Amino acid sequence: MTGLRSWVARRLLLGVAQTAAVVLLVFALTEALPGDAAVALAGDQPDPDRIAAIREAMHLDRAVYERLGDWAAGLVHGDFGTSLVSGRPVSSYIADGFGPTVLLATLTLVLLVPAGVGLGVLAARHEGRFVDRLVSSVTLGVYAVPEFAFGVLLVTVFALRLGWLPPTAVGYGTDLLAHPTALVLPVVVLLSRPVCSLARLVRAGMIDALASPYVAQARRYGISGTRVRYTHALPNAIAPAAQQLARTVDWLLCGVIVVEALYVIPGLGTVLMSAVAERDVPVVQALAVVFGMTAVALNLGADLVAHRFAPRAGVAA
Question: What are the beta bridge partners of residue 89?
Answer without folding.
Answer: 82
